[in-house]
Structures are given as C-alpha cells and as structure tokens.
Amino acid sequence: MRETVELSGVILYAQNIGEYDKRLVILTRERGRITAFAHGVRRQKNPMIAAANPFVFAVFTLFEGKDAYTLSSAAATEYFTDLAGRMPGVFYGYYFLEVADYFGREGIEAENVVNLLYVTLRAVLREQLPIRMIRAIYELRTLAENGVYAPPPGRGKLSEAAFAALRYVTYCELKGLYAFRLSDEAAAEFEAAVSEAFDKTVEKSFKSLAVIPKIE
What we know:
By secondary structure, the chain is of the alpha+beta class. Helices cover 39% and strands 22% of the residues. The chain contains six helices and five strands. The termini are far apart.
C-alpha cells in the first residue's frame, strides 16, 4: 500500500478533467507548487467537493507519484466563499492566485507566500483599504519574498511617506502588512513605484487583469 504525505497550503487553480475528476495546482508550505489529481471529486456525494476549489486553504493528504500527486483527502481551514460576492475583489483574488502560481516553484518551501495570500485575501474581505492599494502591497511583497526586489537606497523624487511605505511593505511582519495608511498623493506615488518595479520583473499577461477593467 502506498504511503501518503501531508502538506498544507492553498489551491491556486482547479481544472475539470473528464466527467468527475479535477486537476489541481496547490501552493504548499512544505514543497512549493505541486500538481495533484482529485479523482471523483465532482461527484455530488464526494466529501471533498467543496474543498477542491481555488482559494481553499487546507491540509491535504496525498499519494506521491512520479510527476504528480493524487489527492486522498482535504481538511479545509478556510474556504473564502465570501469573496464570490465581492466585485471586483473576487477577480483581484484570482489575480493574486495567478501571481503566486507564476512565482511558485516545485520543491521550494513557500510558507511565507502561502501566509501572504491568506492575509491579502483577508484584507480584500475587510475592505479597509482601496483594492488597488491592496494589489500594490501584494505585488511588492511578492517581489520581496521571491528575492527580486529591494527598496532603493535613496528616495529620489518620492515623498518621504511613499518611500517609507516601500520599505515598510518590504520588511514588515505579515500581520501588519495592511495596517498602514497613506494620503491619496502618497498612495498614488507608492502604487506607481510598485507598478514600475513589477512590470520590469514580470513578463506575463494575467487573465484576471483583463476582466477587471470591464467591471470597475
């Protein structure tokens, strides 16, 4: 009998396969991005029918194969079902998952990135910051977590507030990531600086971003 492995993380992508199966992309704390097949999960009485979907954070029990895993069970800790009713928040949520998938690598621990996704989706639900600001903060911290960004040594033409925000987002504890506020002017500077840094690093068109302008 094959042994199982237990991994915790979040489902980034779910694709229907055949009549009842799904192919899942999961970002795990322990082993980074993995692919797992969930057989029979779309059957009405399958106990994992709700858990095998994007945004679900869970502890996954899997059989390990040569090129992919097979899902045995999933103990969900958070479904984020309330996102479905947030517009355009849910599409930004899908964008955040896409970005995590872009940077995810198999075999590389991703605990900080999984936690980053969690606190970001919670920030979307709380609606205490403009969604565009949440996006900028998430993008910047993602670059920092993946070792491809460090704040400039001097603020140049940036205001002190915008420059301080760049440094804060890069180095703060995740629990305080969305706890600061900026004036409209400083926020615009911050968002522009992040957009420039992100576009220089990431060469990809994200599907979710194409939808957002149509509903905003």
